[in-house]
Amino acid sequence: MAIVKIVLEIIVVLASVLLTLLILMHKGKGGGLSDMFGGGLTANAGTSGVAEKNLNRLTVIVALIWVAIIIALGLMAKYGIA
After folding, report:
1. Which of 18, 33, 52, 60 has its CA 20 to 30 A from that of 11?
2. Is 55 inside a domain boundary?
3. Which is nearest to 69 in space by CA: 2, 14, 1?
4. 37-to-26, 31, 32, 46, 50 alpha-carbon distances in Å
5. Which GO biological process annotations does it have (predicted)?
6. What is the pTM of this model?
């Protein structure tokens, strides 16, 4: 079972990095620091609705995988499986 724990830990690290990148790829909703420096003008200029929806879906899927692995690792630690 130690191999399963190591594999899950590697997957959670990769999912964490991917989730961070996916969140940073979302366009800003405005009202923050980006608007103060002119970012609000370019934020509306180039993104498609379909691309944003797909990015949202992918972000949610990766986040659910991340949460499920964290819960699994927690249960494994609690019950001393690995």
Report:
1. 52
2. yes
3. 14
4. 18, 11, 10, 18, 27
5. protein secretion
6. 0.76
Element (H, E) at 50: helix 49-79
The C-alpha atoms of residue 22 and residue 19 are separated, in whole angstroms, by 5
> Considering the domain boundaries, does residue 62 fall inside one?
yes
Is 57 inside any structural domain? yes
Q: Tell me how far CA of residue 1 lies from CA of 8, 57, 77, 81, in angstroms.
A: 11, 32, 12, 7
Residue whose pair of structure tokens reads 């191999």 in the numeric block: 3
pLDDT in tens, 44-75: 555 578 988 999 999 999 999 999 999 999 99
Total count of domains within the chain: 1
Query: Within a 10 A sphere around the Cβ of 46, how many other Cβ atoms?
Result: 8
